[in-house]
Amino acid sequence: MNGDALGLQVLYRDEFYVAVQKPAGMLVHRTGLATRATRFAVQELRDQLGRHVHPVHRLDRATAGVLLFALTPEAAQRLGAAFMANTVHKTYLAVVRGWVAAEGVIDHPVQDRDRGDTARDARTHFRRLGRIELPVAVDRYPSSRYSLVEIHPQTGRRHQIRQHFKHIFHPLIGDTSYGNGRHNRYFRESFGVHRLLLEARALEFMHPYRAERLRIESCPDATWIRVANLFTASVANDRDAPPGPNVVTAP
Q: How far apart are CA 21 and CA 8, in angstroms?
């Protein structure tokens, strides 16, 4: 693991691949869906390394965390095949409204409404890491509940995590497309959160050129650390909470 003093923070690099910490608000590459964007990870990393780079997966603009590039087209093809085969283990962290079940699977089709695609099967496993109840009437209740959740998407649909947690009535904090504006505003005004609380925490996969399993972890920024500290006291106690339903499926 290493990092660069300037530019994108480098989390891992060898002769085939480089992983960086993508900040929230940065696009992976230019797209017609966001014509006013000014920062692109592909361009910035290319300028930083002085060579071409090839993204092997995508993160939403609003999502921060581990973003992986290949340094050659062949390396991109090899690892891209692993992503397509769902053999890359992806871990995310999120803060959601309400208290989710201790563990569960959301099995529900999602649709890329920006591109007009039809709904496609999607499946997401989650595990609650902590929960809090704050004595503030953000919504219609006298107090407000939130959960810190570890998420493992088992398919790779666009906006899958955000749509799935909206589907089970636990939208992500900071989500301006699928979330709850009142809770977003509360986190913005009370905790200085001006972004989606979704972090691509880790990628784990078999290195295509080596007989070793590689795990690359993100470095959460100050906003994530500040929010995670809200849950610190609850994490140890929450492990003894009774489990909720272990599967959430489409109606």
A: 6
Tokens of 46: 């290319």
The catalytic position among 60, 107, 175, 238 is 60
Q: What digits encode the pLDDT tens for the residues 214-227? A: 999 999 888 988 88
**Three-state SS at 100:** coil
Amino acid at 140: R
Query: What residue ranges in the chain does DSSP mark as E strands?
Result: 9-13, 17-22, 54-55, 64-70, 89-97, 103-107, 123-134, 144-153, 198-206, 213-217, 248-249
Q: How far is it, in rounded angstroms, from Cα 120 to Cα 111?
A: 6
What is the DSSP annotation of 107-141?
A: E--B--TTTTPPPB--EEEEEEEEEEEES--SSSS
pLDDT digits (tens, 9 = 90+) for 103-138: 999 999 998 766 667 788 999 999 999 999 999 999
Active site residue 14: no
Question: What's the token pair of residue 37?
Answer: 């964007």
Helix (H, G, I), strand (E, B) or coil at 52: coil
What's the CA gap between 106 and 244, in Å, rounded?
A: 13
- Closest Cα partner for 94 from 64, 61, 137, 114? 64
* Helix, strand, coil shares, percent, the chain, to 5: 25, 30, 45
Task: Provide the percentage of residues in the chain whose pLDDT is more than 70.
Answer: 85
List beta partners, residue 215: 204
143 in Cβ contact with 82 (< 8 Å): no
Task: Answer for the pair 144, 183: CB distance below 8 angstroms, yes or no.
Answer: yes
